[in-house]
Amino acid sequence: MRRLAEPDQRATRGAWAATVACALLLAIAAGCRPAAAPVDLVLLNGRVVTVDAEVPEAEAVAMAGDTIVAVGSTSEIQRYVGPNTEVLDLEGQLAIPGFIEGHGHFLNLGRSKMILDLTTARTWDDIVAMVADAASRTPPGEWIQGRGWHQEKWDPPPAVTVDGVPLHHDLSRVTPNHPVFLTHASGHAGFVNAKAMEVARVTRRTANPPGGEIVKDERGEPTGLMRETAQRLVSAAMEAATAGRSPEDIRSEMHRQVELAGEEALANGVTTFHDAGSNFATIDFLRGLAEAGELPLRLYVMVRRESNEVMAEKLPQYRMIGAGNGFLTVRAIKRQIDGALGSHGAWLLEPYVDLPTSSGLTLETVEDIRRTAEIAIQNGFQVNTHAIGDRGNREVLDIYEQVFRANPDKTDVRWRIEHAQHLHPADIPRFGQLGVIASMQGVHCTSDGPWVPERIGEERARTGAYMWRSLIDAGAVVTNGTDVPVEKINPIASFHASVTRRLADGRQFFPEQRMTREEALRSYTINNAYAAFEEDVKGSITRGKLADIVVLSRDIMTVPEDEIPTAQVVYTILGGEVLYRRTAMAQ
């Protein structure tokens, strides 16, 4: 794993700035063209889109240590080249600020690389076959895990279903001796076989937990589908089965998850990752990596799954800004008021069109989230609440507004709603009025678009689903990401979705809500930096900011829309070091 420079090298910004200034003064005094101190890395002959209004475009960039020291023309930047300078000739390729993943699950991204990838399955039968193959290679009694199935993407759908999802029998037949736990693409539902239900003691008599549902057939038997918090009944049994592992084994597995997540992020041009979120024990682990210089990219971590009582006691000691030489920041809390639309868990103002007996689920109570908000504002923490349904979003906006009014002296808090996917039109202006950030994921729109009208109806989809244009026009800050591993960590795909809203079949999902390309780029760079209070050090290619830059093979700002997805990451530069280079085979 990458080892960082010692923390005191962060002072290179000031040192290099002073060196360059002295060189300029000497040159001017001598009456000759100003010279420049040699730097570590330069980019030449490119198209640099800076996301900086003062210098919006350039051809070249000079970097010393972890800092950008100059942005300008190729002839200007060539003056910074010395005998030890690494020079990258971009040959006209596009350089932009490093992508900032605005909402994802960092260790879960790594974990997803260690279990079955069900996103490739086109039918339920494909999944059964994948699990059967895994069972043939797994000792009896060991758990088989996978992630990424989505019932709306199977063609053809299974012959027998409940709520659109098959029954467990086919899966149980091929895995009589292995408990199986398959997580939905959204993470808001799981599917298990008979053995897993046996181990977890889930039967027809098991009651639904708060905020969850054990889906049952017409005879009252569990189908295998565990919606929202019902998954915890099975995950608890799975954790109990591995409780005997040593701390060294657990730590080794977490290290591997960090490595895999870092590799995947850097290969996709991501230099900062907003992790939503981690408990204090995981934060302790990440802090250790940061202090040892072993985090592969910068993390902005939200505190998650800690009680209000524990947070009230411990938040002050966990608030950290730029620990580990700028690689770890913790100043936010993640809460979750509802589930996902795909699992019928999003909390709606009106019932689902395709499930009229339900308006969704409340996963964490309004009262508990309000108490979190009160604790957060007193401790200088941001609150970032998952809300997908229009009822969930309204309730969160109400909580935020109440806490803001009770604390008029607390300004520039930048609280966020994570996802903000389905809004009542009356609530859209409130984001701008309250200064609430809409932390959204462009690719969710095009991934979910084919079936969203089936869930909530055409009119509710048109006036409230993925309302980027309306939110921006109302003065809200809209950010971007992928919610990885819900979707692939591919900013180019999410950028393309943001500017086209084009579905796989070529249709556009209410295209009047598209972003411009400039807005989409800002949503993935400076807006995400702003959403983490980091716009002064990252998010644009600006002299004095961190040297986090990505180079793309195609100019996503100018190529025809249908060519945007063909762009590939050529270089990912983090802190002035080239940490990813596209190989010839990747081309």
Question: Which key phrases capture this entry?
Answer:
587 residues; alpha/beta; Urease, subunit C, domain 1; Diaminopimelate Epimerase, Chain A, domain 1; eight-stranded parallel β-sheet; six-stranded mixed β-sheet; 21 helices; 34% helix; 21% strand; globular; disordered N terminus
Total strand segments: 27
Q: How helical, in percent, are the residues? A: 25-40%
Derived structural class: alpha/beta
Count of DSSP-assigned helices? 21
Which CATH C-level class of one domain is it? Answer: Mainly Beta
Gyration radius, rounded: 25 Å
pLDDT < 50 runs, ≥5 residues: 1-33
Q: Using the 3D structure, state the CATH architecture of one domain.
A: Roll
- Coarse shape: globular
Protein described:
The chain is of the alpha/beta class. Among the domains are: 1-92 and 541-587, Urease, subunit C, domain 1 (Roll); 110-241, Diaminopimelate Epimerase, Chain A, domain 1 (Roll), CATH 3.10.310. Helix content is 34%, strand content 21%. The strands form five sheets. Strands 8-17-18-20-21-22-23-24 form an eight-stranded parallel β-sheet. Strands 3-2-7-25-26-27 form a six-stranded mixed β-sheet, with no helix packed on it. A six-stranded mixed β-sheet has the order 9-10-13-14-16-15, sandwiched between helices. Helix 10 runs parallel beside helix 12 (366-378), helix 15 crosses helix 19 and helix 19 (491-500) packs antiparallel against helix 20 (517-524). The longest helix has 21 residues, at 247-267. The two termini are 25 Å apart.
